[in-house]
Amino acid sequence: MKNKQRILFVLLVLVMGVFASNAQSSYNNTKAIKKLIEKKKEYNKTNKTGYRIQLYNGLEKTAKSLKYRFQLEFPNVATHLGYDAPEWKIQVGYYKTRLDADRALNEIREKFSGAIVVPM
Prior knowledge:
The chain is built from 4 helices and 4 strands, in the order ααβαββαβ. The chain is of the alpha+beta class. The chain has a domain at 48-119: Alpha-Beta Plaits (2-Layer Sandwich). The protein is elongated and about 80 Å long. The chain starts with a helix and ends with a strand.
């Protein structure tokens, strides 16, 4: 009796595996996939997904002086001074991936030790 149950169970698992593998390989609509990828690219352009490096979060006077100092040290990196009540934030750069932001952070931390990577 136990042998029959085992054989039945094995057959059931095999049949389900065949159906599952056929279901995964039946979708070949590459036009729809390309269209979806294009929509995602357009969304990313308008919503600015990515990372920045935050140098400071605090008083306005300190934030402005730190922004000026950063611009002298790294003239080719964009700086963003913003106010998020009750503190001022100085964020720099725009990086599409976390890896790019971490690479830039290594250089920036040599002169600005409190820098961190933040999502946009």
